[in-house]
Specification:
Protein name: Mitochondrial ATP synthase subunit G protein
Family: Belongs to the ATPase g subunit family.
Strand content: under 5%
Number of strands: 0
Radius of gyration: 25 Å
Shape: flat
Order of helices and strands: HHHH
Main location: mitochondrion
Largest sheet: none
Distance between the termini: 11 Å
Helix content: over 70%
Structural class: mainly alpha
GO molecular function, one term: proton transmembrane transporter activity
Keywords: ATP synthesis, CF(0), Hydrogen ion transport, Ion transport, Membrane, Mitochondrion, Transport
Length: 122
Amino acid sequence: MASKLQQLTSKACQASQFIAKHGTSYHKQLLEQNKQYIQDPPTIEKCNLLAKQLFYTRLASIPGRYESFHKELDYAKQFWKNRKDLKVEDAGIAVLFGLECFAWFCAGEIVGRGFTFTGYYV
């Protein structure tokens, strides 16, 4: 346990040294590449205005999302009603889509655990 703590400490130290050495240049480069998104002057009032715009824009988009959701739901209901007319190809595509969703879920879980398969750090 002590050796793992020592390894973690040394890796954290290396990371902080790397950030101290390269962080400023990366920060300047990032700001330069994205200067079209920066509001000038950066005041509290401007930040509050942007936050309110984001909130109300997202709030205004809810009816459109709600309508899209209901269209998808109606499509699924129609698909279920006409399941007797279902072709093997359509069923195969649906199964492959379900498997792909499950695979992406599994990949997300693995990435979330730090690319370990057991969930424990070795």
